[in-house]
Specification:
- By secondary structure, the protein is an alpha/beta fold.
- Helices cover 34% and strands 25% of the residues.
- The chain has two domains: 1-79, Rossmann fold, CATH 3.40.50; 85-193, Rossmann fold (3-Layer(aba) Sandwich), CATH 3.40.50.300.
- The chain has seven helices and eight strands, in the order E-E-E-H-E-E-H-E-H-H-H-E-H-E-H.
- Strands 2-1-4-5 form a four-stranded antiparallel beta sheet.
- The longest helix has 16 residues, at 171-186.
- The model has no long low-confidence stretch (mean pLDDT 89).
Length: 203
């Protein structure tokens, strides 16, 4: 895939639950280094759209290409090159901060040594440089969110999906998340995020 080709291309995307059409013909194109905010209230179909783009559910109509690959047909291949921050934190409470990153890296077929080399920079990025050995239960909500963001970068993805990344956070924690997202854009990452905050979509 060329650098100028879209990282995400969606055309005529539709999804229905019974009589209710929750995604009604979405068209969008996201190019390298862009940030796209999908704005809408709860229940508007934002998370469903994200899941469709990740190949986690089949569309009822339309086409999806992620990093040049058709989804859901080649979703597995596409997922190796993307990062995902889900709406709810799904960190393993039985592991330390570092162990959460190690285990997640193995999902991508990365060797333990390679993951360990990446961890210090990721923890610094997340503002958790001194918390590698901390248990998840000892982290604040904002720290958990930043760790989930750092975890999504373990495979150095080209495209990052974030589902309402700052919901439930206090203003300071939201500000820190936005600082990190700006850093990712400056690094040339492509970002697709859902939000119900007007100010976030505007940013």
């Amino acid at each position: 895939m060329s650098e100028s080709a879209p990282h995400l291309s969606v055309s005529g995307l539709r999804k229905r639950y019974g009589d209710l059409e929750v995604v009604a013909g979405i068209d969008l194109e996201l190019r390298p280094g862009e940030c796209f905010g999908l704005l809408g209230p709860n229940g508007a179909g934002k998370t469903t759209t994200l899941k469709l783009c990740l190949g986690l559910m089949d569309p009822d109509g339309g086409t999806i290409e992620v990093l040049g690959l058709p989804v859901p047909a080649q979703a597995r291949e596409a997922l190796r090159r993307i990062g995902v921050v889900p709406q709810a934190d799904n960190l393993d409470p039985d592991f330390t901060v570092e162990e959460n990153l190690l285990v997640y890296g193995r999902y991508f077929g990365m060797g333990a040594d390679e993951v360990r080399r990446r961890i210090p920079a990721l923890l610094e990025f997340a503002g958790l440089g001194t918390r590698a050995g901390s248990r998840i239960q000892t982290l604040s909500g904002g720290m958990k969110r930043r760790l989930t963001l750092a975890r999504s970068l373990i495979n150095d993805p080209d495209l990052i999906f974030l589902d309402e990344p700052t919901t439930g956070l206090d203003p300071q924690a939201r500000h820190l998340i936005w600082e990190r997202l700006r850093q990712l854009l400056h690094q040339g990452k492509t970002i697709f995020l859902t939000t119900h905050f007007m100010d976030e979509a505007e940013r």
